[in-house]
C-alpha cells in the first residue's frame, strides 16, 4: 500500500480506537480525525466544505431545530402526565405505544427526556420497571420513518453523497413496524425481569410554588388522582388552600374545586408542567410577567421588606416583579404564597417587568444571584400553527409533493415569523456536536475512497467474496455495525460502517439499498449497552440501573429485532 493509504488507515483505526477506549466526546474525536486528514493532505478544505453542505446533513439540522419548537407544545407533556395508572399492563402499553408512535415523527431523545419526569414521579410502580422499556420504545419507534432518528438521516446523507437519490420517507416503515411491535410484545413478557429499585433523588433546590384553579379548569370536579397531579415531574402537591382553609396532607381522593390554591414544592424549572394544565395559573402568569428567564434573588439582612407579606407589600407595584416561588433553607413553608412573611435569607424567584432593573430599591432589599431559565408554554394559536405546520410538512414530504428539506426550511421561517422560536434560540439549539461528527465521518469516508483504500480492500477481498451469497454479506455488515454501535454511538457506527458496506456492494454487484438499510437499522439497535444510544443513557442516569439490567433485557430484544429485520430484508430484496 502507498504511504497516503497507510495514513488514512491509521487515522481510521485511531478514530475507532478513541471512540471505544476513551471517554472523549465523539465530536472531539471526529474533529481530531478531520484535522489530521487535512494536515496530512488526504482531504482538501474544499471537500470539507462540500461535506458541510450535504443535503442529508442540512435536512437533519432543520429537523432538529423544528423539533425543538414542536417540543414546546403541550401535547407530549399533557400525555406524559396521564401516562401511568394503577394497572401496570395499562401503564406499560400506554407508555410504549405513545412513545413508539411519537418517536416515528419527533426527536426520540426529546420525547424520552419529557417522559422521564412523570414516570419517576408516579405513585404506583417503580420507575425502574418502566424506564428501560421507555428507551427501547423510543429506539424502536425511531426506525419506522426516515426522520425518526438521526441515524437514518446520516445514512441518507451518505447515499446522496454517492449519487444515489436517497431514502424515501416510508422505506423503513415495514421493517420498523414489524420489528418494533414484535419487540414490544417481547418487552412486556420480559418486564418481570426488570428490577424494582429506588430512583435517584433530583439534584435541585426545592422551591415553594402556588397556582390557582380557574372555574373553567379541566381539574375542577376530578380528584387529585384522576387529574394525575401526583405524576408531575419533580413537583409535589403538598397543600391545597380552599376558602381560606388549609388542606394538608393532600390525599388522592380530594376533589379539586374552582378557586383552589394548589401549593407545590419542587424544582421551579419544571413549572411549565403546571402551565400546560388548562385553567391552572401561576400568580406571575396571571399578571402577564412570566417569561423564559426568571431572576433569582436573596433577601438581604437589612431589607425593608422583612416581616411583611408579598400581598401586603404590593410587590408588583413596588418592584415591577411577581414572585413565582420561594425557598427558605432549613424550614418547610406552608400556606398561601402571598401571605408568607418574608425573612432575611429567603430565596425568591421573580418574573420581572421591563422596569425591574431601573428600580432604586433593589439593592436595599435583594442580592441578585442569577437567572433561571424555564420553558414557557405557547399560546393556543401558536400551538395550532406549530403542530399543524409540522404535520403538514411531514405529510407533504411523505407524499413526495415537497422535498423534506424544502418544507422544513419554509416551516422554520414560519416559526420565526410567528414568534414560536427566535434567531437567538436557533443559535442556541444548533446541534454543533452532531454536525462535527457527521462532517468528520463524511470526510473520513471521502479520504478512504479518494486515497484508494476502499478499492484496495475491495481488490483484496474479491477472491473470497465474489462467490459469497449477498445475504451472508448483508448479515456480516449488519453484525459489524451492531457490535460497533454497542461500543461507540449509533451515529458514529453508521458513519464509519457505510463506506465499507458500499465497497462490499461494488464487489458483489448488488443494489445498495438493502445494505444501507442494514447499516441504518443495526446502528439504531443499541439495546445491550446503556452507552450506545442517547435514550439509554438518559434512563440509565435517571435511576440506579446497572449494566447487567440492560444486558438481561436488551440481549433477547436485540436478537429478535435483528432476526426480523434481516429476514425481511432477505425476502424484500430476494437476496
Account of the 3D structure:
- With 575 residues, this protein is an alpha+beta fold.
- The protein is built from 25 helices and nine strands.
- Strands 1, 2, 3, 4, 5, 6, 7, 8 and 9 form a nine-stranded antiparallel sheet that branches.
- A hairpin with a 2-residue loop joins strand 2 and strand 3.
> How can the largest sheet be summarized?
9 strands, antiparallel
Helix content: 40-55%
Radius of gyration: 27 Å
- The coarse silhouette is elongated
- Fraction of residues in β-strands: 5-15%
The count of strands amounts to 9
Identify low-pLDDT runs: none
- For the record, give the distance between the C-alpha atoms at the N and C termini, rounded to a whole number: 33 Å
- Indicate the structural class: alpha+beta
Counted by DSSP, the helix tally is: 25
Integer average pLDDT: 83
Q: How would you summarize the topology of this molecule?
A:
Elements: H1 3-21, H2 26-39, H3 45-52, H4 55-70, H5 75-81, H6 88-103, H7 108-121, H8 131-142, H9 150-161, H10 173-190, E1 207-213, E2 235-242, E3 245-247, E4 261-266, H11 272-275, E5 280-282, H12 283-286, E6 293-299, H13 310-313, H14 315-319, E7 321-327, E8 347-352, H15 362-365, E9 366-373, H16 380-398, H17 404-418, H18 423-429, H19 432-450, H20 453-465, H21 470-487, H22 490-508, H23 513-524, H24 534-542, H25 547-573
Antiparallel strand pairs: 1-4, 1-5, 1-7, 2-3, 2-4, 6-8, 6-9, 7-8
List its traits:
575 residues; 9 strands; 10% strand; nine-stranded antiparallel β-sheet; alpha+beta
Please summarize what this structure is.
The chain is of the alpha+beta class and 575 residues long.
Amino acid at each position: 500500500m502507498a504511504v497516503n493509504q497507510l495514513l488514512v488507515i491509521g487515522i481510521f483505526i485511531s478514530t475507532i480506537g478513541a471512540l471505544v477506549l476513551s471517554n472523549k466526546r465523539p465530536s472531539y474525536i471526529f474533529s481530531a480525525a478531520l484535522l489530521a486528514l487535512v494536515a496530512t493532505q488526504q482531504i482538501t478544505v474544499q471537500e470539507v466544505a462540500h461535506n458541510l453542505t450535504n443535503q442529508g446533513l442540512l435536512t437533519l439540522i432543520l429537523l432538529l431545530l423544528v423539533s425543538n419548537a414542536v417540543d414546546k407544545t403541550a401535547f407530549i407533556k399533557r400525555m406524559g402526565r396521564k401516562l401511568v395508572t394503577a394497572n401496570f399492563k395499562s401503564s406499560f402499553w400506554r407508555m410504549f405505544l405513545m412513545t413508539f408512535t411519537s418517536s416515528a415523527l419527533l426527536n426520540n431523545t426529546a420525547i424520552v427526556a419529557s417522559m422521564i419526569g412523570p414516570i419517576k414521579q408516579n405513585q404506583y410502580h417503580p420507575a425502574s420497571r418502566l424506564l428501560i422499556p421507555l428507551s427501547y420504545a423510543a429506539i424502536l419507534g425511531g426506525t419506522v420513518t426516515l426522520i425518526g432518528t438521526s441515524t437514518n438521516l446520516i445514512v441518507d446523507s451518505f447515499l446522496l453523497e454517492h449519487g444515489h437519490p436517497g431514502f424515501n420517507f416510508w422505506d423503513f416503515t415495514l421493517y420498523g413496524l414489524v420489528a418494533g411491535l414484535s419487540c414490544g410484545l417481547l418487552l412486556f413478557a420480559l418486564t418481570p425481569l426488570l428490577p424494582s429499585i429506588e430512583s435517584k433523588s433530583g439534584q435541585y433546590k426545592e422551591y415553594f410554588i402556588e397556582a390557582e384553579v380557574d372555574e373553567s379548569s379541566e381539574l375542577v370536579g376530578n380528584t387529585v388522582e384522576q387529574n394525575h397531579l401526583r405524576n408531575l415531574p419533580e413537583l409535589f402537591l403538598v397543600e391545597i388552600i380552599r376558602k381560606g382553609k388549609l388542606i394538608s396532607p393532600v390525599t388522592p381522593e380530594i376533589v379539586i374545586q374552582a378557586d383552589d390554591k394548589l401549593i407545590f414544592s419542587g424544582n421551579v424549572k419544571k413549572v411549565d408542567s403546571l402551565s400546560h394544565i388548562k385553567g391552572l395559573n401561576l400568580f406571575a402568569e396571571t399578571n402577564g410577567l412570566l417569561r423564559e428567564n426568571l431572576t433569582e434573588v436573596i433577601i438581604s439582612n437589612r431589607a425593608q421588606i422583612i416581616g411583611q407579606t408579598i400581598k401586603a407589600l404590593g410587590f408588583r407595584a413596588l418592584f415591577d416583579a411577581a414572585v413565582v416561588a420561594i425557598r427558605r433553607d432549613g424550614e418547610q413553608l406552608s400556606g398561601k404564597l402571598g401571605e408568607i412573611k418574608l425573612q432575611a435569607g429567603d430565596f425568591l424567584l421573580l418574573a420581572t417587568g421591563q422596569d425591574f432593573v431601573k428600580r432604586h430599591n433593589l439593592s436595599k432589599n435583594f442580592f441578585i444571584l442569577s437567572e433561571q431559565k424555564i420553558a414557557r408554554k405557547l399560546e393556543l394559536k401558536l400551538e395550532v400553527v406549530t403542530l399543524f405546520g409540522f404535520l403538514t410538512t411531514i405529510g407533504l414530504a411523505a407524499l413526495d409533493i415537497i422535498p423534506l428539506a424544502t418544507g422544513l426550511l419554509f416551516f422554520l421561517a414560519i416559526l420565526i415569523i410567528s414568534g414560536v422560536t427566535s434567531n437567538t434560540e436557533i443559535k442556541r439549539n444548533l446541534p454543533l456536536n452532531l454536525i462535527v461528527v457527521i462532517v468528520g465521518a463524511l470526510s473520513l469516508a471521502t479520504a478512504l475512497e479518494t486515497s484508494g483504500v476502499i478499492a484496495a480492500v475491495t481488490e483484496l477481498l474479491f477472491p473470497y467474496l465474489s462467490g459469497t451469497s449477498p445475504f451472508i454479506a448483508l448479515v456480516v455488515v449488519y453484525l459489524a455495525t451492531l457490535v460497533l454501535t454497542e461500543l461507540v454511538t449509533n451515529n458514529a457506527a453508521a458513519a464509519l460502517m457505510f463506506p465499507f458496506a458500499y465497497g462490499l456492494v461494488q464487489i458483489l454487484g448488488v443494489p445498495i439499498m438493502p445494505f444501507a438499510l442494514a447499516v441504518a437499522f443495526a446502528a439504531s439497535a443499541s439495546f445491550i449497552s446503556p452507552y450506545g444510544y442517547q435514550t439509554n443513557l438518559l434512563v440509565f442516569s435517571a435511576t440506579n440501573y446497572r449494566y447487567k439490567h440492560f444486558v438481561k433485557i436488551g440481549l433477547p430484544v436485540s436478537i429478535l429485532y435483528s432476526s426480523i429485520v434481516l429476514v425481511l430484508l432477505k425476502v424484500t430484496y430476494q437476496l
